[in-house]
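quick one
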Amino acid sequence: MRTPLIAGNWKMNLHRPEAVALAEAIRDGLKKDAQAEVAVCPPSVYLDGVAQAVRGSAVAVGAQNMYHEANGAFTGELSASMLKDVGCKYVILGHSERRHILGETNQDVNRKLLAALAAGLSPIVCVGETLAQREAGQTADVVWEQFFGSLAGVSAEQATQVVLAYEPVWAIGTGKTATPEQAEAVHADLRKILEVRYNSQTAQAVRIQYGGSVKPDNAAELLSQPNIDGALVGGASLKAEQFLAIVAAA
Ligand code: PEP
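structure w/ phosphoenolpyruvate:
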């Protein structure tokens, strides 16, 4: 039985007082009997403050990115152990904004993933096709390539620490959501890929989130699909009541 993970990706939004207040509102509003695990991923400069605000609660903290080296002359970068140090459990890797705006490759994602796992972080690895790729019938190929490229050298045991996030690029921040059927089809494919690459036990254990304009009014239907194990939420994670409504839908 996979526990759904609802994670909020705050991206480059909010300033310290709002970030801490949002974390506190989520912490205080989270129902004791919530059926989902919850994580918030603030901008890196607020990780420490947010981690302090949610310490001792059921809300976990994740970073939005990291660098693969352990330390050294890499100006502006943060290592996996630094993220652990400030209380992170998760790190988002290969988000489409990093792939498409900042030019991150599968190889970059793979290096970061291996370093994150070695440091004891759980990576949330994003995969997903652009609209042009979907319209050209390339969704399965794109997802396959991103999966194998990003998870190269990851053992079956390590894979159970990884969370996959299927995020069709055309649905991110656009208000367009994949239909539950469209999302479920790709999630089922990813589950099959996990089985081919590893084994059925691993495939059944790995959580696969959906991301792309998840809102309180579409969350329940998406999250009721058999292979959708939570959501990576952008815009709607910036309002505590919307985010908590998505958690409740899980
Ligand atoms: C995201 O950036 O991961 C995301 C899913 O954003 P939104 O929910 O705003 O589409």
